[in-house]
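Board notes (copied after class):
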Amino acid sequence: MILCFDSSAAHCAAVLVSEGAVLAQAREEMARGQAERLVPLLEEVLGNAKVGWGELTAIGVCVGPGNFTGIRIAVAAARGLSLSVGVPAIGIPLLDTFVAQSGPVLALADARQDRVYAQVFRNEIPQADIELTDMKKLALAAPQPDWTVIGHRAEEAAALLSAQAWEARERVDLLRLAHLVEMRIADGRLERAAPLYVRPADAAPSSEPVPEMLD
């Protein structure tokens, strides 16, 4: 019984899965307010399936990359629920949820400002760290006709690289995320979920001096 959720973009989304079958799911689009809405949404998903918190065996969460605030909200909720319920909270990167086919795959996610998060997979296994790049630099990469491109602007990137586009995708696939959580549990990979930011925050650090700590 795995509860998976995501708020790494302008939404809150959750799904409850048991042995590969969807018991309940929900999704709400929102530009803000995820912090207030996420846990009530999770309670509604469990309630619709008539499942209690104590029946969960694991929690899965998308750790990014994506919206900084949204990632922090989801990961903090996953960690808190993990402690209170007593089950592992397993983080899955966004691009991992895009890839469900063998062979070399270039997965892309929107990083805004005409930039993309890019990562190469082979047989569903990442071959390198996620890279933040732009479409111009992507066009200069060596053509890889055996690649399949999936994700944000997949057809455009495939044309630039003389590759094949498989599917345009913008959001986390929660069913795929749940499957990856199951695989990690089977492999004994129960590392605590942690945010995956890749790039620095857009907000500038405060210019105010750090206050002195009083004894």
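Comment from the instructor: The CA atoms of residues 115 and 153 lie 11 Å apart. Residues 203-208, 210-215 have pLDDT under 50 and may be disordered.
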